[in-house]
Amino acid sequence: MTQPVTYSGWQSEKSGFMGRLSGPGFALVAIGCTLLLVPLNLASWAAAALCVPLAVMLLVLAFGRVSGLSADEWILLAVRHQIAVARNQNVFVSGPFAPRSTRTDRQPMDLPGTLARLRILEAPDGLGGLLGVAHDPVAGTYTAVSRVSFPGLALVDTDKQAARVSSWAALLRTFCTEDSPIVRLSVHQRCLPDDGAALRSWTAHHITPDAPPAAVSALSDLMEGAGPAATNRETYLSVTLSAGRARLAIKGAGGGQVGAAAVLVREIHALGGALSTASLQVMEWLSPRKLAQSIRTAYDPDAQAAIATANAAAQKPGWEGVEEGVNPALAGPAAADAGWGTYRHDGAWTVTYQVRTWPQAQVYATFLQPLLRPRRNARRSMSLVYEPLGPRRARQELAREKSKRSSARYLRAKTGRDESEDERREADLARTQDAARAAGQGVVRMTAVLSVTVTDLDELETACAELQADAAASALELRRMWGAQDVGFTAGALPLGQGLPDRRMGF
Protein backbone atom coordinates (compact mmCIF):
# COMPACT_ATOMS: atom_id res chain seq x y z
CA MET A 1 0.00 0.00 0.00
CA THR A 2 1.27 3.47 -0.90
CA GLN A 3 2.11 5.61 2.10
CA PRO A 4 0.28 8.96 2.33
CA VAL A 5 2.37 11.91 1.18
CA THR A 6 2.99 14.62 3.76
CA TYR A 7 3.94 18.24 3.26
CA SER A 8 5.85 20.87 5.22
CA GLY A 9 8.45 23.58 4.72
CA TRP A 10 6.44 26.80 4.89
CA GLN A 11 8.81 29.59 5.77
CA SER A 12 7.69 32.79 7.48
CA GLU A 13 9.22 35.92 6.03
CA LYS A 14 11.48 37.96 8.26
CA SER A 15 10.22 41.49 7.79
CA GLY A 16 12.14 42.99 10.70
CA PHE A 17 14.58 45.86 10.26
CA MET A 18 17.11 44.16 12.51
CA GLY A 19 16.45 40.56 13.53
CA ARG A 20 12.86 40.46 14.76
CA LEU A 21 12.74 44.20 15.47
CA SER A 22 10.82 46.51 13.18
CA GLY A 23 12.15 49.93 12.22
CA PRO A 24 10.30 51.75 15.05
CA GLY A 25 11.28 48.94 17.44
CA PHE A 26 14.94 49.32 16.54
CA ALA A 27 14.65 53.08 17.11
CA LEU A 28 13.11 52.45 20.54
CA VAL A 29 16.00 50.14 21.47
CA ALA A 30 18.57 52.69 20.31
CA ILE A 31 16.93 55.48 22.29
CA GLY A 32 16.61 53.22 25.36
CA CYS A 33 20.29 52.28 25.24
CA THR A 34 21.24 55.94 24.85
CA LEU A 35 19.16 56.85 27.91
CA LEU A 36 20.95 54.15 29.92
CA LEU A 37 24.31 55.71 29.05
CA VAL A 38 23.31 59.22 30.05
CA PRO A 39 23.48 58.64 33.87
CA LEU A 40 26.87 56.97 33.49
CA ASN A 41 28.28 59.91 31.59
CA LEU A 42 26.81 62.45 33.99
CA ALA A 43 27.51 60.37 37.13
CA SER A 44 24.18 61.60 38.47
CA TRP A 45 21.64 59.66 40.54
CA ALA A 46 18.96 62.18 39.60
CA ALA A 47 19.55 61.48 35.91
CA ALA A 48 19.43 57.74 36.60
CA ALA A 49 16.08 58.11 38.40
CA LEU A 50 14.69 59.80 35.30
CA CYS A 51 16.40 57.94 32.45
CA VAL A 52 16.35 54.32 33.69
CA PRO A 53 12.53 54.04 33.96
CA LEU A 54 12.15 55.65 30.53
CA ALA A 55 14.71 53.27 29.04
CA VAL A 56 13.00 50.25 30.59
CA MET A 57 9.65 51.40 29.22
CA LEU A 58 11.08 51.83 25.72
CA LEU A 59 12.71 48.40 25.79
CA VAL A 60 9.44 46.81 26.94
CA LEU A 61 7.63 48.55 24.08
CA ALA A 62 10.23 47.23 21.62
CA PHE A 63 10.55 43.62 22.84
CA GLY A 64 7.21 42.98 24.57
CA ARG A 65 4.68 41.05 22.49
CA VAL A 66 0.93 40.60 22.81
CA SER A 67 -0.85 38.20 20.41
CA GLY A 68 2.25 38.15 18.24
CA LEU A 69 2.53 41.93 17.83
CA SER A 70 4.96 44.23 19.59
CA ALA A 71 3.76 47.17 21.63
CA ASP A 72 4.90 49.71 19.03
CA GLU A 73 2.89 47.88 16.35
CA TRP A 74 -0.21 47.94 18.57
CA ILE A 75 0.28 51.67 19.11
CA LEU A 76 0.55 52.32 15.37
CA LEU A 77 -2.61 50.29 14.72
CA ALA A 78 -4.51 52.12 17.45
CA VAL A 79 -3.38 55.55 16.25
CA ARG A 80 -4.37 54.82 12.64
CA HIS A 81 -7.75 53.48 13.71
CA GLN A 82 -8.47 56.45 15.97
CA ILE A 83 -7.51 58.87 13.20
CA ALA A 84 -9.94 57.08 10.87
CA VAL A 85 -12.67 57.27 13.53
CA ALA A 86 -12.00 60.95 14.21
CA ARG A 87 -12.23 61.73 10.49
CA ASN A 88 -15.32 59.49 10.15
CA GLN A 89 -13.47 57.37 7.59
CA ASN A 90 -14.52 54.10 9.23
CA VAL A 91 -18.18 54.66 8.27
CA PHE A 92 -19.46 54.16 4.73
CA VAL A 93 -22.91 55.14 3.44
CA SER A 94 -24.04 54.35 -0.08
CA GLY A 95 -27.24 54.89 -2.00
CA PRO A 96 -28.42 58.51 -2.43
CA PHE A 97 -25.42 59.72 -0.41
CA ALA A 98 -22.93 58.46 -2.99
CA PRO A 99 -21.33 61.31 -4.99
CA ARG A 100 -22.46 61.58 -8.58
CA SER A 101 -20.09 61.69 -11.49
CA THR A 102 -19.73 65.24 -12.82
CA ARG A 103 -19.16 63.88 -16.31
CA THR A 104 -22.16 61.54 -16.66
CA ASP A 105 -24.36 62.78 -13.76
CA ARG A 106 -24.75 59.17 -12.67
CA GLN A 107 -23.79 57.41 -9.50
CA PRO A 108 -20.69 55.25 -10.10
CA MET A 109 -20.14 51.78 -8.70
CA ASP A 110 -20.02 52.50 -5.01
CA LEU A 111 -17.78 50.32 -2.81
CA PRO A 112 -16.18 51.05 0.56
CA GLY A 113 -12.58 51.13 1.69
CA THR A 114 -9.82 49.96 -0.58
CA LEU A 115 -12.42 48.86 -3.14
CA ALA A 116 -13.59 52.43 -3.76
CA ARG A 117 -11.12 52.74 -6.64
CA LEU A 118 -12.22 49.44 -8.21
CA ARG A 119 -14.04 49.37 -11.55
CA ILE A 120 -15.77 46.40 -13.18
CA LEU A 121 -15.10 46.43 -16.93
CA GLU A 122 -16.63 44.43 -19.76
CA ALA A 123 -14.50 42.47 -22.18
CA PRO A 124 -15.30 39.90 -24.89
CA ASP A 125 -14.34 36.47 -23.60
CA GLY A 126 -13.54 35.13 -27.08
CA LEU A 127 -16.46 32.70 -26.92
CA GLY A 128 -19.31 35.06 -27.69
CA GLY A 129 -19.92 36.21 -24.13
CA LEU A 130 -18.81 38.96 -21.80
CA LEU A 131 -16.10 38.71 -19.17
CA GLY A 132 -16.13 40.83 -16.02
CA VAL A 133 -12.73 42.37 -15.29
CA ALA A 134 -12.02 44.02 -11.93
CA HIS A 135 -9.69 46.93 -12.68
CA ASP A 136 -7.64 48.62 -9.96
CA PRO A 137 -6.24 51.81 -11.53
CA VAL A 138 -4.02 52.58 -8.52
CA ALA A 139 -2.28 49.19 -8.48
CA GLY A 140 -2.50 48.89 -12.27
CA THR A 141 -4.02 45.39 -12.17
CA TYR A 142 -6.78 43.58 -14.06
CA THR A 143 -8.44 40.57 -12.46
CA ALA A 144 -10.69 37.91 -13.98
CA VAL A 145 -12.62 35.52 -11.73
CA SER A 146 -13.87 32.04 -12.57
CA ARG A 147 -16.18 29.70 -10.70
CA VAL A 148 -14.56 26.29 -10.54
CA SER A 149 -15.35 22.82 -9.28
CA PHE A 150 -12.99 20.07 -8.19
CA PRO A 151 -13.36 16.41 -7.24
CA GLY A 152 -11.83 16.86 -3.78
CA LEU A 153 -9.09 14.99 -1.98
CA ALA A 154 -10.71 13.32 1.01
CA LEU A 155 -12.24 10.32 -0.76
CA VAL A 156 -9.50 9.45 -3.26
CA ASP A 157 -6.44 7.27 -2.82
CA THR A 158 -3.06 8.71 -1.90
CA ASP A 159 -1.65 8.45 -5.43
CA LYS A 160 -4.40 10.66 -6.84
CA GLN A 161 -4.02 13.07 -3.96
CA ALA A 162 -0.31 13.43 -4.62
CA ALA A 163 -0.91 13.77 -8.38
CA ARG A 164 -3.44 16.58 -7.92
CA VAL A 165 -1.24 18.47 -5.49
CA SER A 166 1.73 18.09 -7.84
CA SER A 167 -0.38 19.35 -10.75
CA TRP A 168 -1.37 22.43 -8.78
CA ALA A 169 2.28 23.03 -7.89
CA ALA A 170 3.21 22.71 -11.57
CA LEU A 171 0.51 25.25 -12.43
CA LEU A 172 1.98 27.75 -9.97
CA ARG A 173 5.50 27.06 -11.23
CA THR A 174 4.52 28.12 -14.77
CA PHE A 175 4.13 31.69 -13.52
CA CYS A 176 7.50 31.76 -11.72
CA THR A 177 9.18 33.24 -14.76
CA GLU A 178 10.86 36.57 -15.38
CA ASP A 179 8.38 39.34 -16.15
CA SER A 180 5.35 37.06 -16.12
CA PRO A 181 2.26 39.26 -16.65
CA ILE A 182 0.34 37.26 -14.04
CA VAL A 183 1.35 38.58 -10.62
CA ARG A 184 -1.23 36.93 -8.39
CA LEU A 185 -3.52 33.92 -8.24
CA SER A 186 -6.14 33.53 -5.55
CA VAL A 187 -8.35 30.62 -4.58
CA HIS A 188 -11.47 31.64 -2.70
CA GLN A 189 -13.99 29.26 -1.15
CA ARG A 190 -17.20 30.03 0.69
CA CYS A 191 -19.28 27.76 2.85
CA LEU A 192 -22.77 29.18 3.22
CA PRO A 193 -26.30 27.95 3.97
CA ASP A 194 -28.10 26.73 0.87
CA ASP A 195 -31.07 28.97 0.02
CA GLY A 196 -32.90 26.08 -1.65
CA ALA A 197 -33.68 28.07 -4.82
CA ALA A 198 -31.97 25.58 -7.12
CA LEU A 199 -33.81 22.69 -5.47
CA ARG A 200 -37.17 24.43 -5.82
CA SER A 201 -36.46 25.32 -9.46
CA TRP A 202 -35.52 21.73 -10.33
CA THR A 203 -38.62 20.40 -8.58
CA ALA A 204 -40.92 22.85 -10.35
CA HIS A 205 -39.59 21.70 -13.74
CA HIS A 206 -40.00 17.99 -12.94
CA ILE A 207 -43.42 17.83 -11.25
CA THR A 208 -46.01 16.56 -13.70
CA PRO A 209 -49.47 18.19 -13.87
CA ASP A 210 -51.15 14.95 -12.77
CA ALA A 211 -49.04 14.55 -9.63
CA PRO A 212 -51.13 13.82 -6.49
CA PRO A 213 -51.71 17.01 -4.45
CA ALA A 214 -50.77 15.20 -1.24
CA ALA A 215 -47.40 14.19 -2.67
CA VAL A 216 -46.74 17.72 -3.94
CA SER A 217 -47.62 19.15 -0.52
CA ALA A 218 -45.36 16.68 1.29
CA LEU A 219 -42.50 17.42 -1.09
CA SER A 220 -42.92 21.16 -0.56
CA ASP A 221 -42.81 20.72 3.21
CA LEU A 222 -39.68 18.60 2.89
CA MET A 223 -37.91 21.23 0.77
CA GLU A 224 -38.84 23.99 3.20
CA GLY A 225 -37.19 22.04 6.01
CA ALA A 226 -34.24 20.52 4.16
CA GLY A 227 -33.22 23.57 2.11
CA PRO A 228 -32.17 25.88 4.96
CA ALA A 229 -30.44 23.00 6.78
CA ALA A 230 -28.17 22.24 3.82
CA THR A 231 -24.95 24.03 3.01
CA ASN A 232 -23.45 25.11 -0.26
CA ARG A 233 -19.83 25.67 -1.24
CA GLU A 234 -18.67 28.10 -3.86
CA THR A 235 -15.11 28.03 -5.17
CA TYR A 236 -13.54 30.80 -7.23
CA LEU A 237 -10.17 31.19 -8.92
CA SER A 238 -9.01 34.72 -9.70
CA VAL A 239 -6.15 35.61 -12.03
CA THR A 240 -4.53 39.06 -11.73
CA LEU A 241 -2.55 40.68 -14.53
CA SER A 242 -0.15 43.57 -13.99
CA ALA A 243 -0.36 46.33 -16.58
CA GLY A 244 3.23 47.31 -15.84
CA ARG A 245 4.67 43.88 -16.59
CA ALA A 246 2.48 43.36 -19.66
CA ARG A 247 2.87 46.86 -21.12
CA LEU A 248 4.40 45.65 -24.38
CA ALA A 249 1.73 43.00 -24.91
CA ILE A 250 -0.98 45.52 -24.01
CA LYS A 251 0.45 48.01 -26.47
CA GLY A 252 0.43 45.33 -29.16
CA ALA A 253 -3.22 44.52 -28.38
CA GLY A 254 -4.37 48.10 -28.86
CA GLY A 255 -3.30 49.74 -25.62
CA GLY A 256 -5.33 51.04 -22.71
CA GLN A 257 -8.00 49.09 -20.91
CA VAL A 258 -9.11 47.37 -24.12
CA GLY A 259 -5.62 46.03 -24.76
CA ALA A 260 -5.17 44.97 -21.13
CA ALA A 261 -8.47 43.08 -21.20
CA ALA A 262 -7.46 41.36 -24.43
CA VAL A 263 -4.14 40.24 -22.94
CA LEU A 264 -5.93 38.97 -19.82
CA VAL A 265 -8.39 36.97 -21.92
CA ARG A 266 -5.48 35.45 -23.83
CA GLU A 267 -3.79 34.46 -20.57
CA ILE A 268 -6.88 32.79 -19.08
CA HIS A 269 -7.47 30.82 -22.28
CA ALA A 270 -3.88 29.58 -22.04
CA LEU A 271 -4.67 28.38 -18.50
CA GLY A 272 -7.29 25.88 -19.66
CA GLY A 273 -4.99 22.89 -20.11
CA ALA A 274 -3.09 23.46 -16.88
CA LEU A 275 -6.34 23.76 -14.90
CA SER A 276 -7.64 20.51 -16.38
CA THR A 277 -4.40 18.78 -15.46
CA ALA A 278 -4.86 20.00 -11.89
CA SER A 279 -8.39 18.46 -11.87
CA LEU A 280 -10.04 21.90 -11.80
CA GLN A 281 -13.09 22.33 -13.99
CA VAL A 282 -13.98 25.90 -14.93
CA MET A 283 -17.75 26.20 -14.68
CA GLU A 284 -17.75 29.78 -16.00
CA TRP A 285 -15.68 32.92 -16.15
CA LEU A 286 -17.83 35.46 -14.36
CA SER A 287 -19.58 38.12 -16.39
CA PRO A 288 -19.80 41.66 -14.97
CA ARG A 289 -23.19 40.94 -13.40
CA LYS A 290 -22.07 37.61 -11.94
CA LEU A 291 -18.93 39.24 -10.54
CA ALA A 292 -21.08 41.94 -8.95
CA GLN A 293 -23.33 39.21 -7.54
CA SER A 294 -20.40 37.55 -5.76
CA ILE A 295 -19.56 40.90 -4.16
CA ARG A 296 -23.14 41.76 -3.24
CA THR A 297 -23.93 38.45 -1.56
CA ALA A 298 -20.80 38.76 0.58
CA TYR A 299 -21.83 42.19 1.83
CA ASP A 300 -25.51 41.28 2.31
CA PRO A 301 -26.09 37.57 3.04
CA ASP A 302 -29.85 38.17 3.21
CA ALA A 303 -29.81 39.08 -0.49
CA GLN A 304 -28.69 35.55 -1.41
CA ALA A 305 -32.22 34.11 -1.56
CA ALA A 306 -33.71 36.97 -3.59
CA ILE A 307 -30.85 36.91 -6.11
CA ALA A 308 -31.04 33.11 -6.45
CA THR A 309 -34.80 33.34 -7.08
CA ALA A 310 -34.27 36.04 -9.72
CA ASN A 311 -31.55 33.93 -11.40
CA ALA A 312 -33.86 30.92 -11.50
CA ALA A 313 -36.65 33.06 -12.99
CA ALA A 314 -34.29 34.39 -15.67
CA GLN A 315 -33.85 30.85 -16.99
CA LYS A 316 -37.59 30.26 -17.42
CA PRO A 317 -39.34 30.78 -20.77
CA GLY A 318 -41.09 34.12 -20.99
CA TRP A 319 -38.69 35.88 -18.61
CA GLU A 320 -36.27 37.10 -21.28
CA GLY A 321 -36.18 40.62 -19.79
CA VAL A 322 -34.75 39.38 -16.49
CA GLU A 323 -30.96 39.18 -16.34
CA GLU A 324 -28.94 36.96 -14.06
CA GLY A 325 -26.65 38.52 -11.49
CA VAL A 326 -26.53 42.04 -10.09
CA ASN A 327 -26.00 45.43 -11.67
CA PRO A 328 -22.32 46.34 -10.97
CA ALA A 329 -23.42 49.77 -9.75
CA LEU A 330 -25.32 48.03 -6.92
CA ALA A 331 -22.60 45.57 -5.90
CA GLY A 332 -21.59 47.35 -2.72
CA PRO A 333 -23.30 47.55 0.67
CA ALA A 334 -25.86 50.15 1.66
CA ALA A 335 -23.77 50.94 4.75
CA ALA A 336 -20.64 49.64 6.46
CA ASP A 337 -18.83 50.37 9.70
CA ALA A 338 -15.25 49.26 10.38
CA GLY A 339 -14.70 48.69 14.09
CA TRP A 340 -11.54 47.78 15.97
CA GLY A 341 -12.23 44.06 15.86
CA THR A 342 -15.35 43.63 13.70
CA TYR A 343 -16.71 44.83 10.39
CA ARG A 344 -20.43 45.55 10.11
CA HIS A 345 -21.93 45.60 6.63
CA ASP A 346 -25.65 45.85 5.93
CA GLY A 347 -27.32 43.27 8.20
CA ALA A 348 -24.24 41.19 8.97
CA TRP A 349 -21.06 41.23 11.05
CA THR A 350 -17.72 39.79 9.92
CA VAL A 351 -14.50 39.02 11.75
CA THR A 352 -11.41 38.33 9.64
CA TYR A 353 -8.26 36.44 10.60
CA GLN A 354 -4.92 36.03 8.88
CA VAL A 355 -2.94 32.81 9.06
CA ARG A 356 0.31 33.84 10.73
CA THR A 357 1.93 30.45 11.24
CA TRP A 358 1.60 27.41 9.02
CA PRO A 359 2.07 23.87 10.37
CA GLN A 360 5.60 23.17 11.57
CA ALA A 361 5.11 19.40 11.46
CA GLN A 362 4.38 17.17 8.49
CA VAL A 363 0.71 17.38 7.40
CA TYR A 364 -1.47 15.63 4.85
CA ALA A 365 -2.96 17.25 1.76
CA THR A 366 -6.38 17.51 3.46
CA PHE A 367 -5.22 19.45 6.52
CA LEU A 368 -7.30 22.54 5.61
CA GLN A 369 -10.63 20.72 5.50
CA PRO A 370 -11.70 21.53 9.09
CA LEU A 371 -11.67 25.23 8.29
CA LEU A 372 -14.72 24.99 6.02
CA ARG A 373 -16.90 22.69 8.05
CA PRO A 374 -20.58 23.50 7.50
CA ARG A 375 -22.04 25.72 10.21
CA ARG A 376 -25.69 26.68 10.34
CA ASN A 377 -25.07 29.83 12.36
CA ALA A 378 -22.27 31.35 10.27
CA ARG A 379 -20.82 31.73 6.80
CA ARG A 380 -17.13 31.04 6.35
CA SER A 381 -14.81 32.26 3.63
CA MET A 382 -11.17 31.50 2.97
CA SER A 383 -8.82 33.07 0.45
CA LEU A 384 -5.44 31.61 -0.45
CA VAL A 385 -3.41 34.29 -2.21
CA TYR A 386 -0.36 33.21 -4.23
CA GLU A 387 2.28 35.57 -5.57
CA PRO A 388 4.72 33.78 -7.91
CA LEU A 389 8.25 35.17 -7.94
CA GLY A 390 10.55 35.27 -10.91
CA PRO A 391 13.99 33.61 -10.65
CA ARG A 392 15.87 36.90 -10.15
CA ARG A 393 13.57 38.20 -7.44
CA ALA A 394 13.37 34.76 -5.80
CA ARG A 395 17.17 34.65 -5.60
CA GLN A 396 17.24 38.13 -4.05
CA GLU A 397 14.47 37.38 -1.55
CA LEU A 398 16.00 34.10 -0.39
CA ALA A 399 19.45 35.68 -0.14
CA ARG A 400 17.97 38.48 1.99
CA GLU A 401 16.23 35.94 4.22
CA LYS A 402 19.45 33.98 4.67
CA SER A 403 21.39 37.16 5.46
CA LYS A 404 18.89 38.25 8.12
CA ARG A 405 18.91 34.85 9.78
CA SER A 406 22.72 34.62 9.63
CA SER A 407 23.05 38.09 11.17
CA ALA A 408 20.65 37.16 13.95
CA ARG A 409 22.61 33.94 14.67
CA TYR A 410 25.90 35.88 14.72
CA LEU A 411 24.53 38.42 17.19
CA ARG A 412 23.25 35.65 19.45
CA ALA A 413 26.62 33.94 19.36
CA LYS A 414 28.42 37.22 20.18
CA THR A 415 26.14 37.85 23.16
CA GLY A 416 26.56 34.30 24.45
CA ARG A 417 22.93 33.25 23.96
CA ASP A 418 22.11 29.69 23.01
CA GLU A 419 20.46 29.06 19.66
CA SER A 420 17.00 27.56 19.91
CA GLU A 421 15.98 24.56 17.88
CA ASP A 422 13.36 26.66 16.07
CA GLU A 423 16.00 29.14 14.90
CA ARG A 424 18.30 26.34 13.77
CA ARG A 425 15.42 24.72 11.87
CA GLU A 426 14.53 28.03 10.15
CA ALA A 427 18.12 28.47 8.99
CA ASP A 428 18.26 24.92 7.61
CA LEU A 429 14.93 25.43 5.86
CA ALA A 430 16.16 28.66 4.26
CA ARG A 431 19.19 26.82 2.84
CA THR A 432 16.97 23.99 1.58
CA GLN A 433 14.66 26.43 -0.18
CA ASP A 434 17.59 28.19 -1.83
CA ALA A 435 18.95 24.85 -3.03
CA ALA A 436 15.54 23.92 -4.47
CA ARG A 437 15.37 27.28 -6.26
CA ALA A 438 18.83 26.74 -7.74
CA ALA A 439 17.63 23.33 -8.96
CA GLY A 440 14.79 24.94 -10.95
CA GLN A 441 11.90 24.96 -8.48
CA GLY A 442 9.63 27.99 -8.24
CA VAL A 443 9.27 30.26 -5.23
CA VAL A 444 5.81 31.53 -4.27
CA ARG A 445 4.78 33.97 -1.57
CA MET A 446 1.51 32.90 0.01
CA THR A 447 -0.93 34.17 2.58
CA ALA A 448 -4.31 32.93 3.77
CA VAL A 449 -7.17 35.04 5.09
CA LEU A 450 -10.30 33.64 6.76
CA SER A 451 -13.56 35.44 7.43
CA VAL A 452 -16.57 34.39 9.50
CA THR A 453 -19.89 36.19 8.95
CA VAL A 454 -23.07 36.08 11.03
CA THR A 455 -26.41 37.84 10.77
CA ASP A 456 -27.02 37.69 14.54
CA LEU A 457 -24.52 39.60 16.66
CA ASP A 458 -25.10 37.30 19.64
CA GLU A 459 -23.64 34.38 17.64
CA LEU A 460 -20.49 36.19 16.52
CA GLU A 461 -18.16 35.21 19.35
CA THR A 462 -19.37 31.60 19.22
CA ALA A 463 -18.68 31.47 15.49
CA CYS A 464 -15.21 32.97 16.06
CA ALA A 465 -14.42 30.43 18.76
CA GLU A 466 -15.49 27.58 16.47
CA LEU A 467 -13.27 28.89 13.68
CA GLN A 468 -10.26 29.15 15.98
CA ALA A 469 -10.87 25.62 17.24
CA ASP A 470 -11.01 24.29 13.68
CA ALA A 471 -7.83 26.23 12.84
CA ALA A 472 -6.10 24.60 15.80
CA ALA A 473 -7.21 21.22 14.43
CA SER A 474 -5.47 22.20 11.17
CA ALA A 475 -2.29 23.18 13.09
CA LEU A 476 -2.67 26.82 12.06
CA GLU A 477 -2.08 29.92 14.14
CA LEU A 478 -4.60 32.66 13.42
CA ARG A 479 -4.36 36.31 14.28
CA ARG A 480 -7.36 38.58 14.34
CA MET A 481 -6.81 41.57 12.07
CA TRP A 482 -7.26 44.22 14.74
CA GLY A 483 -7.71 47.71 13.37
CA ALA A 484 -7.89 46.52 9.75
CA GLN A 485 -11.09 44.50 9.55
CA ASP A 486 -12.32 46.35 6.45
CA VAL A 487 -9.13 45.50 4.56
CA GLY A 488 -9.33 41.92 5.84
CA PHE A 489 -12.90 41.59 4.58
CA THR A 490 -11.79 42.70 1.13
CA ALA A 491 -9.09 40.01 1.05
CA GLY A 492 -10.89 37.18 2.87
CA ALA A 493 -14.60 37.46 2.03
CA LEU A 494 -14.47 38.59 -1.62
CA PRO A 495 -13.15 36.55 -4.58
CA LEU A 496 -11.32 39.51 -6.12
CA GLY A 497 -7.76 38.31 -5.56
CA GLN A 498 -6.91 41.32 -3.41
CA GLY A 499 -3.62 41.10 -1.57
CA LEU A 500 -2.97 42.75 1.76
CA PRO A 501 -1.45 46.24 1.59
CA ASP A 502 1.64 47.10 3.59
CA ARG A 503 -0.30 49.67 5.53
CA ARG A 504 -3.95 49.93 6.44
CA MET A 505 -5.80 52.24 4.05
CA GLY A 506 -8.83 54.17 5.22
CA PHE A 507 -12.08 54.84 3.41
TrEMBL record:
- This protein's name: PrgI family protein
The organism's place on the tree of life at top rank: Bacteria
Asked if Cell membrane is a keyword of the record, the answer is no
- List the residue ranges forming a coiled coil, or say none: none
Compositional bias segments (type: Basic and acidic residues): 415-426
Where is the segment annotated Disordered? 395-426
| Keyword annotations from UniProtKB, A to Z | Membrane, Plasmid, Transmembrane, Transmembrane helix
Compositional bias per record (Basic residues), positions renumbered to this chain: 402-414
Q: Does the keyword Nucleotide-binding apply?
A: no
Q: Where are the transmembrane segments?
A: 21-39, 45-64
Q: Which NCBIfam families match?
A: SCO6880_fam
